Amino acid sequence: MRTPARPPEHADDSTVRRPPTARASTARAVAAGAAVVTVAAGLAVRAGADGAFAKYAGSALYTVLLCTLVAFCAPRARPAVVAWAALGLSWAVEFAQLTGVPAQWSAHSSAARLVLGSTFNAPDLLWYGVGAACAWAVLRAGGRRR
């Protein structure tokens, strides 16, 4: 039986390799915290601003929230994959609004209204991209590069 290698006595925590499951758990915890912060930011924007700023900040934060959820579900995913997946989901929801189904569901459910919206708005597509780009930049700066 092989004895696991121990790090040198002078090694600091940054040089000690953690098992993949520990890294995934840490990444999930960070993603969950980021989701809470993103929701708080969205509620703050909604309470403290109105008009175009509030609407488009909300659109960008919607995609940021989806990035946190994708990162939670796939903690080893590269930042670009997380951002593109969240952007694709955001766009899919926006284009689904052209069918009228989200509007029907939103009429009966506050949760559906928050998640799916009700009316297609082309500028939202751009602001989803802004949110994805911001989340990508934060993920990349945070050392999520693989």
Description:
The chain is mainly α and 146 residues long. Helices cover 72% and strands 0% of the residues. The protein has 6 helices and no strands.
Q: What features would you highlight for this structure?
A:
146 residues; mainly alpha
> On the 0-100 scale, what is the average pLDDT?
87
Largest sheet data: none
Regions with little confidence, pLDDT below 50 for 5+ residues: none
Query: What's the end-to-end separation, in Å?
Result: 32 Å
- Give me the number of helical elements: 6
Shape: elongated
What portion of residues is helical? Answer: over 70%
Order of helix and strand elements from N to C terminus? HHHHHH
* Percent of sequence in beta strands: under 5%
Number of strands: 0
Which structural class do the helices and strands define? Answer: mainly alpha
Alpha-carbon Rg, integer: 19 Å
Brief characterization of the structure:
By secondary structure, the chain is mostly helical.
What layout of secondary structure does this protein have?
Elements: H1 20-48, H2 51-73, H3 79-96, H4 101-108, H5 110-116, H6 122-141
